[in-house]
Write the structure tokens for this entry.
Amino acid sequence: MLQAYYEHDMTEEAVFELFMRRSPQRGFFVAAGLEQGLEWLSQLEFGPSELEWMQHTGLFSNAFIERMQRFRFTGEVRALPEGSVFFAEEPLVQIVAPLPEAQFIESRLMNILHYQTLIASKAARCTLAANGTPVIDFGMRRAHGGEAGLWAARACYMAGFSATATCLSSARYNIPASGTMAHAFILAHDSEAEAFERFARSHPDNVVLLIDTYDVKRGAQRVVEVAQSLAAEGLQVHGVRIDSGDLAANAKIARDILDRGGLTKTRIIVSGGLDEYRLETLMAEGAPIDGVGVGSNVDTSADSPFLDSAYKLHYFRDRPRGKHAEGKTDLPGRKQVFRHYDADGLLSEDTLGLLDENLEGDALLEPVMRDGKRLKMPASGDLDCARARCEKALATLPAPLKQLRTPGQHRVSLSPQLKALREELAQSYR
């Protein structure tokens, strides 16, 4: 496509917008991944090996390959700040750049923003379902690749998780690290008690012991026994973890044994196949748990493993553009999202309008890049700011939007000018 654009001098400014179509499983989305997207755009260029590959394929002209040696992103970007809540059809990112540049960045930019938005939207539902109980990211092992595991930890923390077990994410994004032991650690020792004692002495400030390798009841009793000998050394058992079986019932059994053994301050953490649906059930059953670890179901967004994301051309050569196929009609023009709240501070309605319209409400899309340069360099606290923004945004959601199984749909209306533009475009196609 790029070669054809250049051959026909189709290099004028174009407007592309990245948005999500409606999802029956999600009442809202959480914007995430912008930081990594902007980093990629600011460094975009073709290296020698890539140019050599282009030559080797025989698909491209020498003139085009020579031109790609100088290829850079020189455009403008407007975006929703990370941690923002948004809804179907609302632009997550808006690109204004020469047509070849705006076209080329589609796949990788979508790859970055879609995945983190997918995971942040799933993780936010877990945060809401946990209702204040700390949630930890345990999902690296089954994430779809190392990069996915890192980004999932980042998106989960943004959406309200308290920590991650992925150490590189902790190092790279300053997310609190948290972890315990695996069943292999218990099995590698000749006795459960020996494994508990050695772990406690090795990690005196993080004595969290896995008690379900053989039997939860017996494991909890071993913890009480070991705690007495460790106390003589000044060591305290901070928590136990249960990873299998009926988590609510096993947590109640463990809580009773720990309390009768004097370990009333020892926390109970549960894990194993958890997601927002199981968390909702655990909370409803009144399970005595103090923390949860979630992994595979969140890092893969198992109930909805992708969002129907789209990156579409909406303006070029002084004309609005938009796909007008059956079931997938786009909204043309360069747009802005205007947000409205009710008297209680809850979301009431969004209005999608054209960028130059002066409409009521909070304008959500913000300029973040101009002439290919970032307008604000990342700071060490940016992820914490996005996390705080997400927490505030989730607090504004009306109850129907937070429902897990049959979420309500937020009202997103179109401004009169946008409606007229859409109809004008449809008439021209007809």
About this structure: The mean pLDDT is 96. The CA atoms of residues 215 and 250 lie 10 Å apart. The chain has 17 helices and 21 strands. The longest strand covers residues 13-20.
